[in-house]
Amino acid sequence: MIRFLNIKHLAVIDTLEMELDPGLTILTGETGAGKSILIEALGLLLGERASADLVRTGESGAVVQAVFEHEDGSNTIVRREISAQGRSRGFIDDNLVTVAALREFGARAIDLHGQHDHQALLNSKTHIDFLDAYGDLGDKRLVVAAAFKRMRAIETQIQECTISDQERETRISSIRFQLEEIDAINPQTGEDESLGAIQKKLAHAETIVRLCHEAEQVLYEGNRAILGELSNVWKNVEELVEFEPSFGQHLQARDNIKTQLEDLVFSLRDYAGSIDTSPERLQEVDERLAALQRLKKQYGRGSLAVVLEQREHFEEELSRLDSKTARLSELQKSCDDARRKYLKVAKDLSQQRKKFGANLTVKLMKLLSELAMENTKCDFQFGENDLVEKDWSVRGCDVGELYLSPNAGEALRPLAKIASGGEISRVMLALKTLASADAHGKTLIFDEVDSGIGGRVADVVGERLQELAKRFQILCVTHLPQIAVYGSAHYEISKKVVEGRTVTTARMLNNKERIDEIARMMTGRKVSDRARQSARELLSDKKNSNSE
User: Which of 423, 427, 442, 469 meets the CB 3.0–4.6 Å disulfide criterion with 24?
Assistant: First the structure.
């Protein structure tokens, strides 16, 4: 879930910070206050398209950053930077990543539901996930995924064995060349690090030797060497003892002090003698490091450990290619067995899905009816031929999709082609209530969930959001007070003019401020004492009902 959100120089936002807690957080504000910009900022963290138009006028760039807290207590920092020229960069824990990596992380961390935003339900492939979650089919999914991966791994090995002789010989020659190139240098684990330390020492050899000799002179060989002068010091101390006995304790330590200083002299002398000051040795180390660097660049993506791993992969592939003929028959038998096992577990999963699919749609229609979609019909439809090999995957062999008819008399059609933004949000709300496909703590963002509803239906939506917030972090943009009162936290998004510039801010409301905001939402005009009393009663009713 999102713990902290920081936005700088994005559109009408100069600087905006939000600290978010688990549960249901409500976002309200007048039309045009900037709620859509806030949602767009979160979309940027999901890898959505960035443009120079998003950068605040006069600024060199915009930044959106969030801290995500995981169930184990660890944190991940995600950041998106946009320059005034429209260039964009993404970071995860300060490591530069691709937009694809942002999307991958975002898909696990956030579901954003609104008319113009990322919507998981518009991707029909996710519908199976909701069905599996509803039927608690996660364990069966894991078995199917393992069987699929084993089958594909064997198929890959077969492909390697069945390539043409010419291709095989070409690949063998290439691998042998690369192995010879690595073996000619013969890198050792950690060698680059140890040589780096040696290089540093050799590069400063003269300085090291000079420092050792100077220190030795001061301690032992100079006219007024410390070790020589110490005898005079101890004579004076011996005389002082006659006048002040406490100096006797120092006399007890003199032998130890002398020994330590003598050890230091020997250490300095030995260390200076061990330093090779010849330019030939430094050149030798420099050349070795350069050779290792070439290997790391060519085979290790900058890492010597990866180079050594790559060498092992080369040897394994070479072994497989050399034993092609003998292994092909064995692999084919293994593949046939793997395919049979995959189809067995995939068919079992498919049967379970069809069993739960009918039940899910019945409950989904009932829940949607409570959410002002009374005439909605639903059906979870599977492909006519579910065993077409091109459709096999770690999810199984099914092609399943949720079909919807929101209006009486209309034919069922794919959800993505028929539902509006507000309907999509309510369908998602209903599905998330019925299923738990996502890990606890994921952030669900609902924008326009209240589109086209009001009254008692809005109250039901609020109840569902509150129930869902027990498992997920919920951020909900709403214009309805009936929904807003269910929040465990409430932010007001507002817009004001500062020094001639429009600025959007986000402010967490205390109880009194929350009453005023809900009163404004109820009246849509200047807040009166009567409106405040109504807001107070509405909040009190929800608190009382929650405590029952």
Answer: 469
For 33-64, the DSSP string reads: SSHHHHHHHHHHHTT----GGGBPTT-SEEEE
Confidence of residue 116 (pLDDT cuts 50, 70, 90): very low
Cα–Cα distance between 227 and 233 in angstroms, integer?
Answer: 10
Q: How confident is the model at residue 318 (pLDDT cuts 50, 70, 90)?
A: confident
Place of tokens 């100077």: 214
In angstroms, rounded to a whole number, what is the distance separating the alpha carbons of residues 255 and 187?
49
How many alpha carbons lie under 13 Å from residue 157 in its C-beta half-sphere?
23
Token pair for residue 492? Answer: 């007001």
64, 80 contact by CB (below 8 A): yes
Give 284 or 80, the one with higher predicted confidence. Answer: 80
Q: Look up residue 271 and give its amino acid.
A: Y
- 400 in Cβ contact with 357 (< 8 Å): yes
Q: What is the pLDDT of residue 82?
A: 95
Instruction: Please say whether the beta carbons of 474 and 23 come within 8 A.
Output: yes
The tokens of 228 are what? Answer: 């020589």
Half-sphere exposure of 281 (CA within 13 A, CB side): 14
Contact call for residues 154 and 332 (beta carbons, < 8 A): no
- Picking from 346, 409, 354, the residue whose alpha carbon sits closest to that of residue 380 is 354
133-173 confidence digits (pLDDT tens): 888 888 899 999 999 999 999 988 888 777 666 677 788 89
User: What average pLDDT does the segment 379-395 reach?
Assistant: 77
Taking 70 as the threshold, does the pLDDT of residue 547 lie above it? no
Confidence band for 120, pLDDT divided at 50, 70 and 90: low
Residue 432, H or E segment:
helix 421-434
- Measured from the Cβ of residue 243, the count of other Cβ atoms closer than 10 Å reads 7
- Quote the CA–CA distance of 412 and 376 in Å, as a whole number: 10
Is the separation of the CB atoms in 468 and 445 below 8 Å? no
Identity at 9, one-letter amino acid code: H
Domains within the chain, CATH numbers bracketed: 1-115+438-457+469-508 (3.40.50.300), 163-322 (no CATH), 509-548 (no CATH)
